[in-house]
């Protein structure tokens, strides 16, 4: 009986890890696109909140899931345009711009969400039902009934991994992030490329906020991301700017995020506040460990990350 309970607990934790990890994964992939192009992305928390509140507003008002997703992506893409304009065109400090995006998104989402706070959505993200997988242990519980945004995130990991590591576009992206001056000499339009990657990456972070409200927490609450945007920023470093590693990192932290709630269901007397601290404490510890372990190794960070590119400047 104990073995069965342990098995059930483990499988439920895996399912919860995928559900909680999907918004982290989408936000991390968006951040990877930004930072591989040389633009630091510290605005994920505010962008996710904007994606979530727009999703909630449009879905409650229209009932159309397609229009909801388009709106969330479009609004956060506009935030990407603003971020790109500040960092690429005006060459503003990337860290300060990212923090400003977080404050702006947090404040504006709180204002917009006042009228719909606590209201349930008319629906959730649709599921892809693969009933033939149901008899397979573990695999069936994980993959037989996943929602479309989770499948999309997995598909996106594969696409980005192939694009970055096996195509000329990936080589161009690496050049833009490592040596924009060299990329410029090669004929790559550095500023335009950075705009495109920042806008598309920011839209993905907004989609992470949409997934958070459509599949994980189906009603708007002010500050509902609860630091998930900052965890996504840390996951970019954990994954070493690699989409495939981002998949495993996001699901690991999704499991840690869900672990506290699962432990409570077992009747544990551990205070809930300590259980909620688990993913954040682990984030700090892993950052410390990686910093110590890789102190004498190449970090994998794009070499021109955070460095404004001036075409006329000579190095």
List the defining traits of the structure above.
single chain; 315 residues; mainly alpha; two-stranded antiparallel ribbon; 13 helices
Secondary-structure blueprint:
Layout: H1 2-36, H2 44-62, H3 65-89, H4 94-112, E1 127-129, H5 139-143, E2 145-147, H6 148-166, H7 168-178, H8 180-185, H9 190-216, H10 228-238, H11 243-265, H12 272-276, H13 278-293
Antiparallel strand pairs: 1-2
Helix pairs in contact: 1-6, 1-9, 1-10, 1-11, 2-3, 2-4, 2-9, 2-10, 3-4, 3-9, 6-7, 6-11, 10-11, 10-13, 11-13
Textual characterization of the structure:
The chain is an all-alpha fold and 315 residues long. The model has no long low-confidence stretch (mean pLDDT 88). The longest helix is centred in the first third of the chain and has 35 residues, at 2-36. The chain has helices spanning 2-36, 44-62, 65-89, 94-112, 139-143, 148-166, 168-178, 180-185, 190-216, 228-238, 243-265, 272-276, 278-293, and strands spanning 127-129, 145-147. Strands 1-2 form a two-stranded antiparallel ribbon.
Task: Tell me the major beta sheet.
Answer: 2 strands, antiparallel
Order of strands in the sheet with the most strands?
1-2
Q: Uncertain spans, ≥5 residues at pLDDT below 50?
A: none
Structural class computed from helices and strand pairing: mainly alpha
The residue-averaged pLDDT reads 88
- How much of the sequence is in beta strands? under 5%
Cα Rg: 20 Å
CA-CA gap between termini: 68 Å
Order of helices and strands: HHHHEHEHHHHHHHH
Percent range for helical residues?
over 70%
* Helix segment tally: 13
The best one-word shape is: globular
How many strand units? 2
């Amino acid at each position: 009986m104990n073995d069965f309970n342990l098995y059930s607990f483990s499988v439920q934790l895996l399912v919860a890890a995928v559900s909680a990890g999907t918004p982290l994964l989408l936000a991390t992939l968006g951040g990877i696109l930004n930072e591989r192009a040389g633009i630091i992305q510290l605005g994920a928390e505010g962008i996710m909140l904007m994606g979530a509140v727009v999703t909630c507003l449009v879905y409650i008002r229209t009932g159309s899931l397609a229009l909801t997703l388009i709106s969330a992506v479009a609004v956060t893409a506009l935030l990407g345009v603003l971020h790109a304009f500040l960092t690429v065109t005006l060459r503003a400090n990337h860290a300060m711009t990212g923090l400003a995006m977080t404050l702006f998104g947090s404040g504006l989402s709180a204002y917009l969400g006042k009228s719909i706070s606590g209201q349930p959505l008319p629906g959730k993200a649709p599921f892809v039902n693969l009933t033939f997988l149901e008899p397979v242990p573990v695999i069936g519980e994980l993959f037989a009934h996943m929602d479309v945004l989770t499948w999309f995130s997995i598909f996106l990991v594969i696409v980005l991994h192939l694009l970055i590591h096996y195509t000329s576009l990936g080589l161009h992206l690496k050049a833009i992030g490592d040596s924009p001056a060299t990329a410029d000499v090669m004929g790559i339009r550095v500023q335009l490329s950075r705009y495109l990657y920042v806008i598309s990456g920011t839209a993905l972070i907004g989609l992470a906020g949409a997934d958070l409200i459509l599949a994980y927490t189906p009603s708007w609450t002010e500050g509902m991301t609860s630091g998930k945007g900052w965890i996504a920023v840390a996951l970019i470093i954990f994954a070493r700017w690699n989409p495939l590693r981002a998949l495993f990192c996001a699901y690991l932290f999704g499991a840690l995020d869900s672990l506290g709630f699962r432990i409570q269901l077992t009747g544990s007397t551990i205070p809930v506040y300590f259980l909620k601290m688990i993913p954040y404490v682990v984030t700090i510890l892993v950052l410390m460990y990686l910093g110590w372990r890789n102190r004498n190794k190449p970090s994998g960070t794009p070499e021109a990350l955070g460095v404004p590119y001036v075409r006329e400047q000579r190095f």
